[in-house]
Specification:
Strands 1-2-3-4-5-7-6 form a 7-stranded mixed β-sheet, sandwiched between helices. The chain has a single domain (about 5-135), classed as Gcn5-related N-acetyltransferase (GNAT) (Aminopeptidase, 3-Layer(aba) Sandwich). It has helices spanning about 10-20, 30-35, 80-95, 115-120; strands at about 5, 40-45, 50-60, 65-70, 100-105, 120-125, 130-135. α3 (about 80-95) links the parallel β4 (about 65-70) and β5 (about 100-105). It starts with a strand and ends with a strand. Helices cover about 30% and strands about 30% of the residues. The chain is an alpha+beta fold and about 140 residues long. α1 (about 10-20) crosses α2 (about 30-35). It contains 4 helices and 7 strands; from the N terminus they run βααβββαβαββ. It is globular and about 40 Å long.
Length: about 140
């Protein structure tokens, strides 16, 4: 299936997708501030219908974290989450100056750790519980 990607999330879409996956409700002021302070935001659409979102938060220099990777239940297992993560990483890659390095992390639960590994992040339980990726340019 061909999904449309935008590098923007509006609060209404964020909250709608969030509600669809059963996460706690946030007010629009909280959502607006969070989105504004994100390094990169991505929305996925099926036509005009927002089916997933994701973002990277961080210091814009050395470290960032994949967060709020959410896909509506009826679209899960169809590659939408991986598409969102790949688009976030691609956009982030454009911000990294030549010769510099950026560490991207995620804090998955045991049930979705494999998802992040399939997206290219590494898991080394002897070092940490989360997954990570060094992005070099």
């Amino acid at each position: 299936m061909n999904y449309k990607i935008t590098y923007n999330i509006i609060p209404e879409h964020f909250e709608s997708v969030r509600a669809s996956v059963g996460w706690n409700k946030l007010n629009y002021d909280q959502i607006s501030r969070a989105l504004k302070n994100s390094m990169v935001n991505v929305s996925a659409f099926d036509g005009d219908f927002c089916i997933g979102v994701g973002r990277i938060v961080g210091d814009n220099i050395l470290k960032g974290m994949l967060t709020d990777i959410m896909v509506r239940p009826e679209y899960q297992g169809k590659g939408v989450g991986k598409l969102i993560v790949n688009k976030l990483i691609s956009k982030l890659y454009n911000y990294i100056p030549e010769g510099e390095c950026f560490q991207l992390e995620a804090s998955p639960t045991a049930s979705n750790r494999e998802f992040y590994i399939k997206c290219g992040l590494k898991y080394k339980p002897e070092n940490q519980d989360g997954v990570y990726m060094w992005i070099r340019k």
